[in-house]
Automatic annotation (TrEMBL):
GO terms for biological process: phosphorelay signal transduction system; regulation of DNA-templated transcription. Residues 149-214 form the HTH luxR-type domain. The keyword Transcription regulation applies. It comes from Paraburkholderia guartelaensis. It holds the Pfam family GerE. Residues 13-123 form the Response regulatory domain. PANTHER family: DNA-BINDING TRANSCRIPTIONAL ACTIVATOR DEVR_DOSR (PTHR44688), HTH LUXR-TYPE DOMAIN-CONTAINING PROTEIN (PTHR44688:SF25). This is Response regulator transcription factor.
Length: 218
């Protein structure tokens, strides 16, 4: 049964958008050094790459890149995933400028292996955020989130988000434990923490609150 991710029989086809020729050359070298990836081309703008039909576009510091990605679309073909490399995640316009199509958002100073991992994850339909970007998004320059009871909302950990997603899929404690290779008691501990952080009193309420806070996509 499909889980919503994409599967490729061959290398993931990658195109690069970057204003700097040096950055384009560096990203090209990273892609070409990885057998699982196929370099299609690079340019300073998306229009120049029209007709290349990549699976993933790596855009360096191009918040507006998603608007131009339509030039890379082929009729009847799904749009390419977007791996966005950002220079400054602390600017005031950071959240507003992020393109909706960005499925991987990394700082520009990440290691080559992290870029490769992000490309492969984006191609598989997954979302990737570097730790500093994640922290910035969670903060969002907004007031602290509130629980259902009106108290401060504490963010869930990555593992707790995994457990919450499995709750949403209807899995019981034993199945969650099996899939995550952890004990039943550890699952119970995670659930207790999730309920406490979300202000939930039962599994159904936890799922609903998780959806409200954006931890579960529907």
């Amino acid at each position: 049964m499909s889980d919503g991710t994409m599967e490729y029989m061959g290398p993931v086809r990658v195109a690069i958008i970057a204003a700097s020729p040096q950055v384009r050359a560096s990203l090209q070298a990273i892609v070409e050094a990885e057998p699982a990836l196929a370099f299609l081309g690079s340019a300073a703008d998306a229009e120049t790459l029209a007709g290349t039909a990549p699976d993933v576009v790596v855009a360096d510091n191009e918040p507006e890149a998603s608007d131009a990605l339509k030039t890379l679309f082929e009729p009847g073909r799904a749009p390419p995933a977007l791996v966005l490399l950002l220079d400054d995640a602390d600017s005031d316009g950071f959240l507003e400028e992020l393109p909706a199509e960005a499925t991987a958002i990394l700082s520009r100073n990440v290691m080559p292996a992290e870029i490769v991992a992000a490309i492969e994850a984006a191609a598989a339909g997954l979302c990737v955020l570097s730790p500093d970007i994640l922290a910035r998004l969670l903060a969002g320059r907004k007031p602290l989130r509130q629980t259902a009871s009106g108290g401060p909302f504490e963010a869930l950990s990555i593992r707790e988000i995994e457990v919450l997603a499995m709750l949403a899929d209807g899995l019981g404690n034993k199945e969650i434990a099996r899939q995550l290779d952890i004990s039943d008691n550890t699952v119970k501990s995670h659930l207790s923490s999730i309920f406490g952080k979300l202000g939930a009193t039962n599994r159904t309420e936890a799922v609903m609150l998780g959806m409200r806070h954006g931890y579960i996509m529907v």
